Amino acid sequence: MATRETRLRVISLYKELHRLGREYPDPAYNFHKKLRGLFEKNRNLSDPEEIEKAIKLGEYIRNETLALYSLRKYRHLKRMYPQDSFSDPPP
Asked: Can you tell which superkingdom this protein's organism belongs to (predicted)?
């Protein structure tokens, strides 16, 4: 059985991933459905090592999603300011 601390960590992770999924760039991916499916699949875990392993996977997904959003913002800025606009003006 999961401890109260573990349960709160999992709920917090789920809420954070759910919030991140609102802005997922590809609507066809269906982020929320996959997120819910992963959490429901691991619902009955009882071994503390397996629970910790599942939490680590969730944290990895969170970090990768945040990196994806940062990359998306960087690409948007790069398109807004083409490379030519940063070069020195001709003499």
From this structure: Eukaryota
Q: Which two tokens stand for residue 51?
A: 């629970």
Tell which residue, 22, 20, 21, 61, has the closest CA to residue 42. 61
Q: Look up tokens 């619902």; give the residue.
A: 43
Residue with tokens 């300011």: 81
pLDDT, tens only, 3-19: 899 999 999 999 999 99
Between CA 63 and CA 14 the distance in angstroms is 13
Q: Is the pTM of this model over 0.85?
A: no
